[in-house]
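Anyone up for a design puzzle?
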């Protein structure tokens, strides 16, 4: 992972963000999470754990940042080639996700859609939709897309 705080490099990285992530351009830091299957553990069965390892690292990083009083927001809305160029990441390495780090602050400057999302009650899928005991349960299948 690469955490960017240098103002010049940070601006270069922010230029790769999609328009919908306009709010992230105010952040003082962004961390890039990277992977390469050749760096990861591979099981004898052929399973590659690169993406599992990346996900675990990103989640633990976010938990620690929140513990330290930061707001975090993972995003995939960015031009990966431009972001890799801004960070000097080699071609063989995949930049999978960026995690925006910021201090808590006012919601001023958010558009209507983002302000509504920021202030809406939080909800999660019910436990039985993501968990089964002892065997497969068809409730684990994703809901049909509308």
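Challenge accepted. My sequence:
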């Amino acid at each position: 992972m690469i955490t960017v705080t240098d103002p010049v490099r940070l601006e270069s990285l922010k230029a790769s963000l999609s328009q919908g992530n306009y709010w992230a351009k105010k952040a003082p830091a962004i961390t890039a999470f990277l992977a390469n299957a050749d760096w990861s553990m591979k099981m004898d069965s052929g399973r590659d754990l690169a993406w599992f390892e990346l996900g675990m690292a990103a989640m633990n990083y976010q938990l620690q940042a929140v513990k330290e009083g930061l707001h975090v927001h993972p995003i995939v809305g960015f031009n990966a080639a431009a972001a890799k160029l801004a960070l000097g990441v080699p071609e063989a390495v995949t930049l999978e996700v960026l995690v925006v780090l910021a201090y808590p602050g006012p919601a001023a400057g958010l558009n209507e859609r983002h302000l509504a999302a920021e202030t809406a009650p939080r909800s999660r899928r019910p436990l039985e939709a993501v968990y089964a005991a002892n065997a497969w349960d068809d409730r684990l299948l994703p809901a049909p897309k509308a």
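A detail worth pointing out: The longest strand covers residues 94-102.
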